[in-house]
Amino acid sequence: MFLRFLFLIIFFMLASFSLSWGSEGEQKIVYLISGPRALSTVFLRMIESRGDFIVYNEPTIPVYDRVYYSDITEGWFRDDANTTFEEVKRKIFELNKNSDVFVKDMSFSSHEYILNDQDFMKNPSIHYLFLVRNPHHTSISFYKKVRDIFPGMSDLIGLKKLYEEYEAIRKMNPNGVKIIFSEQLYNTPRLTMSALCNHLSIPFSERAFAWKKYDQKFQGHNEWNEQKTGSHIHHWHGRAIQSEQMEKPSSYETDNMGNPSFKEIEDDAHRVEMMSVYRENLIYYKKFINANKDHLIPVNGSVKEAI
């Protein structure tokens, strides 16, 4: 009798331990990677408005910029901004201890960090998403923000590095990867979000389609774990900060043949350079279009006509 009672105690202790151990790490890390000007911040706002994720905006950018663009980006970041990729990883997992986490990052700044960390790519708690927008639109939108040409401009638009990350991660991560096109976000937001919820095994929520408008005092540190200073977060994310729902972004001119004209760029030398950047990135955009097996939802005409 005593032995049976002791056995039951041990059994329930082991069962309890097993349950508690299994519950650790159940929270998801959803890691969205995109190039700049791809509606990624509005995507972040959609996730933020659900209320069940902590969001973390562009954690690798201060690390990357301090190495490659320290002169240009001096004063852009808070004093407590990340200085190493190890800090980035540590913060992500700290946030993930008690909550699902949505990380929104840039391909040019996350590329070195992620591809040199196989454990991070393989981690079963991390679900990777790739957000892709036509380089015609991203290259002009990015140029309008910086009004200049920098070394490595093609890398900053980012589709080559994004595709390299996609190719590496899809072979390693047990959850697979999903590609989302920016046009799908604003043309079919509910269909896209419903498919994403199914993929992530999270509940669909109508709260993802409307949110509060932030004002000019918004700093983003508490809401988004933002590391840029106030003026720079508003420079880069002003439209998303002041938005209240998903909206169609600006469109740009094409010629009679449907090819990008780049007339929006007045400087002749800059226009030629950005057209070259566009063509370099177009190669990888087409690769994403053809990666049918990993599309979150099928590509429709609104995406294909943007090629």
Task: Please explain how this structure is put together.
This protein is an alpha/beta fold. The chain has helices at 2-23, 40-50, 61-68, 85-95, 107-115, 118-122, 135-146, 153-157, 159-172, 182-187, 189-200, 221-224, 230-241, 268-290, 301-304, and strands spanning 29-34, 53-57, 100-106, 126-132, 177-181. The protein has a single domain (27-304), classed as P-loop containing nucleotide triphosphate hydrolases (Rossmann fold), CATH 3.40.50. The chain contains 15 helices and 5 strands. The protein has a 5-stranded parallel sheet, with helices on both faces. The chain starts with a helix and ends with a helix.
Along the chain, the helix and strand elements come as: HEHEHHEHHEHHHEHHHHHH
Percentage of residues in helical conformation: 40-55%
Q: Span between N and C termini?
A: 76 Å
- The percent range for strand residues is 5-15%
- The name of the CATH topology is Rossmann fold
Structural class: alpha/beta
Instruction: Please report the total strand number as a whole number.
Output: 5
Runs in which pLDDT lies below 50 for 5 or more consecutive residues are 1-25
Q: Specify the overall morphology.
A: globular
Q: How does the major sheet shape up? A: 5 strands, parallel
The largest beta-sheet arranges its strands as 2-3-1-4-5
Task: Work out the count of structural domains.
Answer: 1
Mean pLDDT: 90
CATH class: Alpha Beta
Per CATH, the superfamily is P-loop containing nucleotide triphosphate hydrolases
The CATH architecture classification is 3-Layer(aba) Sandwich
Structural Rg: 21 Å
Quickly count the helices.
15
